[in-house]
Amino acid sequence: MLKWFLGLGVLVAVGYQICVSVVHPVPTELEERDKVAVLDAIGHIGNNVLLTAARFGVDLAAYRPVKLLVDSVYSLILNGVSPEPYTDVEIRDITIAEVPVRVFIPRKQKKAMFPAMIYLHGGGWPWLSVDVYSRFLSHLCNATNLMIIAVRYRQPPSHIYPVSLNDCRNVTWSTLAGKSGLPIHPRYVIIGGDEAGGNMAAALALEFRSKIYMQILLNPKLQMFDFLTPSYQDHKNILTGVTSSARSAVDWLRYTGSSVSWYPALLNNAHRFPSSEILQHQSYLDADTFLPSYLELTKSKTVTTKDYDSTIGKELKDLITSESLCPALASNTKGVPNAYIVTSQFDVHRDEAVMYITRLHKDSGSKVKLKHYKQAFQGFFPFAGNKSWFRFNVSDQALQELVEFISFQVHRVMKNPAS
After folding, report:
1. pTM above 0.90, yes or no
2. CA distance 322 to 38
3. Which of 130, 167, 245, 417 has the most other CB atoms within 10 Å of its CB?
4. Which SS3 state, helix, strand or coil, does residue 305 take?
């Protein structure tokens, strides 16, 4: 009954918002624009409420009813009103290193030892959950033939950085050390995640390096240093309900336990302490150096700003250059795990992910593969296999290409390690 009520409320709100937002049409490059328009409208509503509260220093993520509402709406969009049970996958709820996890095991595979992916879900850190992602992760498990360990990491604002990361680190270390209690091949442990989860996956890949077989990052958000990268500039007034620079800034502030009211300063890069020690990190985010021209991502360029808020800058100066918080600023990438990174054209985090994988290709000595989807938007990947109205062809295509990659790079290698 609750889902039907939520569905009716969403339809009414979306109808109003679409009328208001007609001056900001969905880009023609996107397929299935009617569906994207609805997602954008829902996002606009959420952003308006979230950012209005944030201006007054109120973080709505701190209120459990708000989180339940957000999770319920997203679950309705991602899973439909009455999703059928997924029978091809065995699901277990257990703990690893005293952290709760949900394990997905493909029933069609009868193996003594499984390759596994530790998956860290997205949602800007405070929003969404393993429960919301369960149907997508069941589909991912069945399609890839990987055992998937989804970490129920503690979330801000109740638990700020580095608590979420520590939970994921503990699960990862125990799994790599063979202490998970699961039949996992220790040589074939993958770390993966989307958006905020992709951030933590990248950080752990840097930390564990040679111990992790591969990292799979889906639309990852990798830095809070520069909010004027070309992709941030490109989406200042485009599809802002789906991909929002202001919402991203609030996410980072909430994750680090900082005041969400500071977000306007971040949007102008006024949070960067003006010292050579801090500003030298800009070299890792130089569009002219690290955005390949053949991708034709943007016509925007890296910009500089003289804005500076001394109070915010002093509070954040150690955080914005932390490599465990901002993996895109890692000074040493030698020996990091091979990387498969998915990016979308319509995503404020697009360029930091592309620049990061370009750096890995040049400096790390690891194998990397970038899959950029011109017709995709931020957060599109978990819609793969969706049986509701919100099913996107580009999401299914991206999953199929990931499946083929894993089949070649994981399952084939396990059968013939010398190949």
Report:
1. yes
2. 37
3. 167
4. coil
